[in-house]
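Practice problem: predict the structure.
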Amino acid sequence: MADHGLIAAYRHDLLARLPAELAEEVSGGLTDAQEGFLRRGLSPDEAAAAAIAEFGHPGAVADAFRRACPVWTLARVLIVTGPIVGGWWAAALIAARAWDWPIPIAARLLVGLVLAASVAMLATASLTPRYQSLVRAGIAGCLGIAVLDVTVITTAMPLAPDARWPVVVAMCVSMIRVTFVAGTLRRYFANRGA
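Answer:
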């Protein structure tokens, strides 16, 4: 059965908002709903309109997928917890007198740039209405934060051997965050393959 014009327009709108596999899945359900309304005796125009009304606006459908995306949730968690983790690291680095560590200025600047870029990516992921932009920016931002956490942990361990309690707490918080990022992204990619 050929798509009704309303169903085809809905599918086209979804394809602009969602990855093709998600848009096609929703479109298949929409076509099934339309066929159900046709079997109940509605005209093709009425059946298409009823199916669309049942599914809701394509923007609302795309937004539901966006909010259900684990990368979106992870990006928002990292944005909210970022200042807390940053505060712990600030306390730890002050306690360990990190300004005396033999780290080149270029490396310090690179860490700052990666941090700024990662935060920008996380903000983009949490605010963009486009699913594909959310996933790309979210993955980049999450990986950037995880790399920074691992970098600061591996740098602080040899340079702060007395491991004052703020350093230990900061390392633990960062390891929890790295574990959370790795687990969430692993599940996301595993579900995409399924």
